[in-house]
Automatic annotation (TrEMBL):
Belongs to the cytidylate kinase family. Type 1 subfamily. It comes from Amnibacterium soli. Signal peptide: none annotated. Keywords: ATP-binding, Cytoplasm, Kinase, Nucleotide-binding, Transferase. Its main location: cytoplasm. This is Cytidylate kinase. The gene is cmk. InterPro entries: Cytidylate_kin, Cytidylate_kinase_dom, P-loop_NTPase. Its EC number is 2.7.4.25. The lineage of its organism: Bacteria, Bacillati, Actinomycetota, Actinomycetes, Micrococcales. CDD domains: CMPK. Residues 5-215 form the Cytidylate kinase domain.
Amino acid sequence: MGVIVAVDGPAGSGKSSVSRAAAAALGFGFLDTGAAYRALAWSVLEQGGDPEDAAAVERALDGFAFESADDPDERWVRVGGVDVTDAIRTPRVTAAVSGVARVPAVRTRLNEGFRARLAAAEPGVVAEGRDITTVVAPHADVRVLLTASAEVRASRRAKELPDEDHSAVARSMAERDAKDSRVVDFLEAADGVTTLDSTDLDFDGTVAALVTLVREAA
Ligand code: C5P
C-alpha cells in the first residue's frame, strides 16, 4: 500500500489547495472528499429533491456514480459521466451540502469509495476532508489538521469569491462549520494528529510545511 496522508480542517482553511499542491510536489495522487459530498448535493438538487430530506438524499445516493481526478494537476469531477467540476462550487450547492453530509447512509457509502481509492494509491495519496484523520483513514501514515484563525479563513475565502459580500461569506462559513462539526469533529486535533496552523504562513509556506511533515514521516 502507498503512503496515505490525511488532512482535515474547517472551511476556508486552504486544505484543498494546499493538499493538492503538496500531492503534486510529492508525486502523489489527490482525493478531495468534499467534492463527493458536494456532487451528491448537486444530484439531489438536480432531481428536484430537498437536501434536508434524508429520504430524498438516499434516493439520490442510489446509483450515485462519483468520479474525480486522481492526478493533482487535473481538477475534473463527474457524476454519471456528467462534468460537474464547476457546478458543485456554486453557493446553492454549498448551502445544501451539510444537510446531505449528515445522513449516515451517505457517510457509510462515500467512505467505502474513499477507502478503496486510498488502498489503490501508488506511491501515495493526499486525501482531505473533515473526518479523514479520524474515520476514513485513522491509520494513515501522516495525519494533519490544517487550521487558521477565523478571520484569516474568511478573508481567504472572500478573495476566492470577489463578487460576494465579505461579511456574508464569513457568516455562511461559520454556519457551515457549526453544522458540520455536529456530525464530525474537525475543530480539534484528535490524538496523534499534527496541527498545522497556517494563520501566519503564506500558501507556499503552508505547502512546504505539509510536504516536510510527509517527508519526515516516510
Ligand atoms: O471541503 P468542502 O468545503 O468542499 O466540503 C463540502 C462539505 O462536505 C462540508 O461542508 C461537509 O458538509 C462535507 N464533508 C464531510 N466530510 C468530509 C468532507 C466534506 O462531511 N470528509
